[in-house]
Batch of 3 targets.
Target 1
Amino acid sequence: MNYATIKNNDIANGPGVRVSLFVSGCTHKCPGCFNEVAWDFDYGQPFTQETIDIILDMLKPPHIKGLTLLGGEPFEPQNQPAVVELLRQIKANYPEKTIWAYSGYLFDRDILAGKLGPKEITDEYVSYLDVIVDGRFVQSRKNLSLRFRGSDNQRLIDVKASLKAGEVVLWQDWQTEGKGLRK
Ligand code: SF4
């Protein structure tokens, strides 16, 4: 896998102050995409153990709430093994940090259904996630007032609650972040 960018102290892509990893490669090609250069799987730099170590170091300060995965498409089958290795190491070092992922694929129809490569890899990937923001960006449904998403077809899904319930449960920030702490 290649990656385009790592952002430290990111406050735009999930609750609190986070580290964001923008992976390379996306086959969705949504019109109006915010990051067209990252459609190319060869864009950016190779993602290595050194990259993982940099991310682990960035996650260390207590005020960093967790990691957000963006792209590109973090769920493309060829990107999943490298992301899973990253998440494995994050959870081993910082079990309390939250993991968010953005995907143009649908959580129930594509990801949980095992349509994106070996299901055991996808299942391990999903087991590390707290929230997934799913669905392609749709320009005609773009809404600048939406929090943490670009168009209103995209869903903020509470992954752990959804797995427990056996159906999609939307993320409610007061449940996980503390009522009244964030607006
Ligand atoms: S899924 Fe995301 S990165 Fe891929 S084309 Fe759509 S908006 Fe761009």
Target 2
Amino acid sequence: MASSQREAENSPARLGPLKREESWQRLGADKFDLVVIGGGVVGAGTALDAATRGLRVALVEARDLASGTSSRSSKLFHGGLRYLEQLEFGLVREALRERELMLTTIAPHLVKPVSFLYPLTHRIWERPYTAAGLLMYDTMGGARSVPGQKHLSRAGALRMVPALKRSALIGGIRYYDAQSDDARHTMTVARTAAHYGAVVRTSTQVVGFLREADRVSGVRVRDVEDGRETEIHASAVVNCTGVWTDELQRLSGGRGRFRVRASKGVHIVVPRDRIVSESGMILRTEKSVLFVIPWRNHWIVGTTDTDWNLDLAHPAATKHDIDYLLEHVNTVLATPLTHDDIEGVYAGLRPLLAGESEETSKLSREHAVARVAPGLVAIAGGKYTTYRVMAADAVDAAAVDLPGRPQPSITDKVPLLGADGYHALVNQADQLASEHGLHPYRVRHLLDRYGSMVHEVLALGEGRPELLKPLEHAPDYLGVEVVYAAGHEGALHLEDVLARRTRISIEYAHRGVDCAAQVATLVGEVLGWSKDEEKREVEVYQARVEAERESQSQPSDEAADALRSAAPEARSGIIEPVS
Ligand SMILES: Cc1cc2nc3c(=O)[nH]c(=O)nc-3n(C[C@H](O)[C@H](O)[C@H](O)COP(=O)(O)OP(=O)(O)OC[C@H]3O[C@@H](n4cnc5c(N)ncnc54)[C@H](O)[C@@H]3O)c2cc1C
């Protein structure tokens, strides 16, 4: 084996089958400073924050990286125009600073500017009122990487968004925010943490807490693939489980300082040509706002906001949710969208703070962090955009339980894997394309998903040119991307690849079913699946899609949940609920 190949095999950021076994051994044998529970963006961010401060960290995720809320958001890095109206300037400034850091330093390959048209509907007061807000939005938090607001007459706005009804607006203002593929971003944060030494392991569920006298001294975990269990010993444990926060709190046996409730948000995905527009849109609704967000060859339309008390792992969208979205977006569209236009639907749960007590160290209106017991910190709430700030707060809160005083957080200076060298590669896209016999457009698409790790991805096609071909029924993706997902990005099941490493499950009307067999064969080669295992993966995935489709025709949450939660789990060893 050439030394460069050996190096790649041993790369700490390579989350493949070999690393998985090695990580299991380390979880049981090493003594950690911090164990982080939950591989959403907050847990992955906390692991990265801690590792780059010089701490020994383990990150354990029960299912897949970003399989909870962090793959189901509106995918915006945004300040939140709504908070400006509520005069929450501090929150907006903090979020806009994060947006700027992502665009420039931390993840320029993954986070991109995106424009929104704000249609004006009232004469006289609305334009100056909105303009004043947007002026702050454009200047707060050092937001220099995106263009400032642009004012448009009705004719100008209609030229930008020809899909709008003439009667839907009297003029408009275009402003900018940023967007990212949330699941890929979270996975890249986790891999970056692994690069800096964190042990990152998925399909590893926390099923108990260890105690020494009155303090939490670690966790008991179960490998949900094969049922093995082991103990992880650590000076402190951080609960980053989003909507599962209360469940883990109960498992720890202690009383929490805050509670988390779940609010469901549903999005639909429609083909790009159904809404003729050069820009996204933000529309006001009675309760909140509705976004129409450009997403590759599609639009994402969302979201709803309703209480959810059912299955936390599989929130189900109902017909009612979908009707709500269609009804609201159709109020402004000249050619209305129908159910037949929908390619994909996804539902996520917002982890909202509820029932806080006074002791809670509430660092912002959006998130809360508390040392709930000696050796145990909980953090929840917040939004995707501010995960880095939350992560730093969580590690600070755990500091009293650590043997030495940790260094201050430095993640504002730590680019994610793939960021380094990205800009140069964009300039070299044509050369890279001709070296690999690909279209430059394809290489740019890959660069926005992998950054400078694109070399690792393309290297998998050396000697196997068939892997550089598009997938038969999902031509936006190449075979090498599937192989890379299983060999480097920690994907363990077909669902991980179709729903999160790629977004085939929401980008194609077949929702991944038509390419399931081809993808399963490619994944199976890397993970060593037998033909029976390959078949089971395809069947489980088909059943998931079927259950989701059926639930989306149900009138109520209860009916939709009953259908969705009856589908088999890819991770059949998961214990739910764990307490
Ligand atoms: C519809 C919607 C739209 C949104 N849009 C935006 C947006 O555009 N911009 C923005 O900034 N924010 C947005 N948000 C908010 C944002 O998505 C969330 O705040 C964020 O993703 C929460 O991340 P998390 O890590 O706290 O939770 P999660 O991503 O849910 O991660 C928690 C993890 O813990 C794991 N876990 C649970 N139990 C265990 C156990 N026993 N052992 C091990 N692991 C366990 C779960 O499997 C899960 O992966 C949106 C949210 C929703 C619902």
Target 3
Amino acid sequence: MKIACVGAGPAGLYFAITMKLRDAAHEIDVFERNPPGVTFGWGVVFSDLTVDNITRNDPVSARTITDEFAHWDDIDVHFRGETVTSGGHGFIGIGRKRLLEILQQRARELGARLLFEAECDPADPKWRDYDLVIASDGINSRFRDVQPEAFGVDIDERRNKFVWLGTNKAFDAFTFAFEETEHGWIWAHAYRFAPDCSTFIVECSEETWKDLGFDRMDQSEAIAACEKLFAKYLDGHRLISNAAHLRGSAAWLNFRRIKCERWSSGNVILLGDAAHTAHFSIGSGTKLALEDAIKLADVLNRKGLSLEAALDEYQAERSLEVLKLQNSARNSTEWFETLERYTHFEPLQFAYSLLTRSQRISHENLRVRDREWLETVERWFWKRATDGHSNKTAPPMFAPFKLREMRVENRITVSPMAMYSAVDGVPNDFHFVHYGERAIGGAGLLFTEMTCVSPEGRISPGCTGMWNADQLAAWRRIVDFVHANSKAKICLQLGHSGGKGSTKLGWEGNDVPLESGNWPVLSASDVPWSPINQVPKPMSRADMDEVREQFVAAVRMGREAGFDMIELHAAHGYLLSSFITPVQNRRTDEYGGSLDNRLRYPLEVFAAMRAAWPSDRPMSIRISATDWAGDDGITPEESVLIAEAFAREGADLIDVSAGQTWAGQQPVYGRMFQTPFSDRIRNEGRLATMAVGNIYEPDHANSILAAGRADLVALARPHLVDPFWTLRAAAQLDYRDIAIPPQYLNGVAQLSRNLKRDAEAAAAMRV
Ligand SMILES: Cc1cc2nc3c(=O)[nH]c(=O)nc-3n(C[C@H](O)[C@H](O)[C@H](O)COP(=O)(O)OP(=O)(O)OC[C@H]3O[C@@H](n4cnc5c(N)ncnc54)[C@H](O)[C@@H]3O)c2cc1C
Ligand SMILES: Cc1cc2nc3c(=O)[nH]c(=O)nc-3n(C[C@H](O)[C@H](O)[C@H](O)COP(=O)(O)O)c2cc1C
């Protein structure tokens, strides 16, 4: 085949090498706009896996590259005058310029033609003479941008400003240096890639960048300003830019996240950054470019595979890998973009949050990397959780937590879950066993299912209630069992179904109206949940008074039943949520329109409940922090304002759920997918939060807690199959200091021994 590679970056050069290795008869021309030896950027980092891949593909170039690698293990985080060092991270890096020299030499050796100072124009007719044109022309690819529809290009220009500089200061560790200025934070990512050369990337928010005057400085002034800001890390060494000699490259940039739906069009194939980018803070762009090149060369040389099938396979396989990395990169990008959210952390927690920002590294990964350091974090966590009384080194999930005078033994909670098994709202033996079992299962706090304040406030005929004496007595029996047989605390979740009421039991059809015996439903507005649901009656002021008093009466009964805590359910599209969310609330009076108006009634109910509940016992509020409706729904900023408004009325904990507020929601699912909302509310609003949603491993819980993304972690569905989730986690993590019912002591000890033996055997096999 006759092939043109546009761009002699890692993608274009490595593709040329790999094609020639597969079949020396390919005729390959590599065009590059810059002269040889002139390039942007400084060092690039690799993982062990990438080294294995390039070694298998071309041992010759891999040997030269690996011979020149700089290695380092530690990460130093400089923050507020302290340096936090954690080890075991195992990085390898090389200068970008040197990497390109090695690849150029190898490409030439194998017979590829390299043409420098050759600016390529997509409109040039000469491209028709090639069987394939590989657009390896980087992030600002002209060949991609000339036909954006054909490739389905999606570009997201990110908020922060960065500049990629170098220095002769040799950093021993991968260094993050954060500096606070009168105009906000600015920081550097620095690492050594050669004995006397390091990469030094400076980043800050656009506002800080402007306020520091960088928008008015030329390159040498900007460099001098950075040298001054980071003088204490540079030991008198200069910062250097290589952007001045470059064509098509600027000094300060905003990172552009590129995604393409299709990676080929006609005879043009996108490779490397032209097809996709991953934020520099996870250092994987070069790896992706090299691995793309290997895969594309593989499929193009596979006998019997048509060009169309080859390209399909190339994209199908590579796009999965790219998606995973782009997801991690997005988390990492956002962490740096919202940095100021975390600057109230102490240095140790700040460093932990930084290290776990992409969610690729978890609590247990950090233990493997540097046990001693992780144990320092755990000790710190326990000390804070106990006001300095404990010196324990143990997983964060087992640390106690205090809300008003209520102390929970650990940070795991059983999230509210409707059981649809009551008759006339009265909990029965099923509920007794269900809650009793989960209490002795080790969780620190148990939430009841949404317990309704009136018969009409039920979701289904099977919902539990708190409006009469029979219900109160049945709940008291459950609460007494929990208190007598476990250390768990129990919280009564109170709610009103609103427009989602009068529907079937959960397993008979979610949100499907009853076949018969329907009751009229209330809501903020006359917006039906779906075309098959009833049109609700918009609440009148008299309705509001009546329902508020029902909530207050239920709170008083909850107090009599002995509950430790009350939660008001204002999420998931039920009555109070229908006021808060603009996708349901169409009112034109003082209860609709602005956020203040939409919050007015829910806050009134909460305040009345709070007044009826003992001041030494806590209350929480469950909210949907997003409607998953883009700009039409609750915005991320509003979620913080909502939480703050309830906190002002006496909410001690924000139970941060999401969605289920309208039938057309477009949620983005994944592991711990709602935790970012809790993170934001906790760290911007400085409020205690509980995270929930697809959290299922002890490792998830520990990572969330230690990184300060929530104070409590709620698990719903995992507790449906395993009431003993917390005790099992204690056995798994070899944590002994948990209240185990004496009847079950042997079982937990045995599980702990078995799990330990299995882990040791697995480790021995790996060796
Ligand atoms: C600040 C920063 C730090 C980074 N750190 C790392 C890191 O540590 N590790 C890592 O793996 N990756 C890192 N990256 C990403 C990495 O640089 C890219 O992912 C990688 O270079 C992609 O390789 P590529 O060959 O696709 O594109 P590029 O390396 O951008 O190469 C494209 C080439 O095409 C040439 N070109 C463009 N248009 C034309 C044209 N019309 N005619 C002729 N030539 C053209 C360009 O001059 C360039 O040489 C970083 C990126 C940035 C911005
Ligand atoms: C069967 C079931 C019933 C639920 N009922 C309630 C409820 O009564 N009140 C509530 O606030 N959330 C309810 N939820 C939502 C859960 O509390 C939780 O937010 C959600 O399931 C996500 O957590 P998970 O991924 O750990 O399951 C219910 C969830 C399930 C699976």
